[in-house]
Amino acid sequence: MPQPFRFRSLQGLISSARARGFGGPTLGLALLGFLALLATSGVSLWTANALSDHSAAVEHARDVRRALDQTEHRIVDAVAAERGYLLTGQESFLRAERESRLELLDDFEAVRTLLRDEPDQLRRLEGTRPLIEEGMTMTEQVVRDARDGRFVQAVEVLRSGRGASLVQEIQQRFDEIDQVARDNLRERERAANRARQANLWFSTLGSILIVLVAGLAIFQFSRNFKAIMRAHDELDEVNLGLERAVAERTEDLVLANREVERARDRAEAMLREVNHRVGNSLQLVSSFITLQRRSINDERAREAFSATQARIEAVSRVHRQLYTSDDMSQVELDAYLTSLVDELRQSLCSGERACALSVEAERLKTTTDRTVAVGVLVAELVTNAVKYAYPDSDGEIRIRLKREAEGRARLTVEDDGIGVSEAKDTPKGTGLGKTIIAAMARDLRTEVAYVYGPKGLSASLVFDL
After folding, report:
1. What's the pTM value of the predicted model, to 2 decimals?
2. Helices and strands: H and E segment counts in the chain
3. Domain ranges of the chain
């Protein structure tokens, strides 16, 4: 029949241990191992708290960044709706502008709620309120002027550039708030790393002491089978604890890798958003040029506006294609040239001037910078051909892109127009187009070769992909 459990005094436990062959050094080492276990447990709890604080700081920083991004989106949406209403007069843009302003206030209050326990950050955020209010007041004034027919006043407000400077300053201040949040997050991460290191040292020391105690226990209980089994059980428990610690650390590493992947995905999303915004801004500038060109009667001025619009479209098209692409470092030249020529056909071959543009391009890829240079070159060469090749009749302008050996490509723009014999007698234009062509060719580390004939002109260049 098993004996009932009875509490013993410390002196009784020591006497019982000595009776079983445990001397003073053994008992001291066992007590030291017990203290090491307590210290290891305390350090583990401290480490867990530090990791919990770091996790909360990561979540808080992500929430602050998300709220700041949402507020910036509302500002950009309000400005875009304002310009859309100014350009088209559609009531849908007016409603979108009003909704964006109302949602902006809610988003701003959401950021304030997140920063309520951070006085310095809250003070930085409050510093942006006058800028936001000024920008929204300016947007309301532009919409009001456009709605009341005062388009000149509305355009003057846009041309002042104050709205763009306000948006840029707000973004800079939001970036400062985000940077402070990131600095705080890094400090929490350093504290968590120190806690992990301390936990590692204490765990190692505790493990060493525990192993020593276990060894002495095995030696002392070698004549007692039950005692040996108990020692084995203790060692098994220690091993299980170590395995759990390894599993927990492995899980921490997996979580850290997932966080890095999420940060990378977010950076790619932000880069797509930047390309989207740049493309939209350039498209807006192109629309302004179209409006201005329609109000000008001077033919040379209209041609200059058309050429400028073609250059802007060449750059805008790159950013719009990057926004929908999975690869942010390279652009598909064939798709880019096809879409660019479609834009040029709409802007150059409409109205009184008729022309035919055709594209024959192999599937090639190159960097973003080279794509911009190629696009500007094509825009300039096509513009020149439209203006000068067929002064008295309609004709075709052909754009060809073919692969050359050793990672190079050949671009050709040709027409069947009047040729150089009739065009060389009277220089036309300001020479700006020729300067731009030479500059873009230098960027591609090549030169444009012209083939003159009695009928037609061919311009070609070979460049590295």
Report:
1. 0.40
2. 12, 7
3. 19-220, 277-464
